Amino acid sequence: MPVPAAALTTKRVSRPVLLDLPYAPLEKKALPAGRPREWYVNHNRRLKAMRLAIALLDSGVHLPNQAKNTTIRSMAEEIGIHPPSDITCHMVRALMRYSR
Q1: Measuring CA to CA, which of 32, 40, 47, 68 is 20 to 30 A from 85?
Q2: What's the pLDDT score for residue 21?
Q3: Angle in degrees, 0-180, between the axes of helices 37-59 and 86-98, rounded to the nearest 10
Q4: What's the rounded Cα separation, in Å, for the pair 24 and 90?
């Protein structure tokens, strides 16, 4: 039986991708000084939205319309962060939308 040409040209990964290892966060660094307070608020809000979007994607919520505010807030409780505001919930859905 002939083998398709595309099957002959695929490469195998030489090492397995380890996804089940425990996550170790990076060492925290101080934020740059001298910025307006609003910059720090937005920066931290974006970080929180990214953490929540990743957790939702890992849990099986893949579409923004599946991520209601209650779903996002229950995920925040599950992963141990403060409940997000409506603005942060909106940012989570935007991240999920634009990552496609």
Answers
A1: 32
A2: 52
A3: 60
A4: 27
Query: Taking the C-alpha atoms of 76, 81, 87 and 91 in order, what is their torsion angle to the nearest 10 degrees?
Result: -70
Helix (H, G, I), strand (E, B) or coil at 16: coil
Query: Residue 73 is encoded by which pair of tokens?
Result: 């807030």
Helix axes 37-59, 69-79, angle to 10 degrees: 90
Which amino acid is residue 53, in one-letter code?
A
Token reading at 60: 């099986």
Q: HSE, CB side, 13 Å, CA atoms: give it for residue 24.
A: 2
pLDDT tens-digit series, residues 48-61: 999 999 999 888 88
Which secondary structure element, helix H or strand E, spans residue 38, and what is its range? helix 37-59
Low-confidence ranges of the chain (pLDDT < 70): 1-25, 99-100
| Rounded distance between C-alpha atoms, residue 80 and residue 88, angstroms | 16
* Cβ pair 45, 91 in contact under 8 A: yes
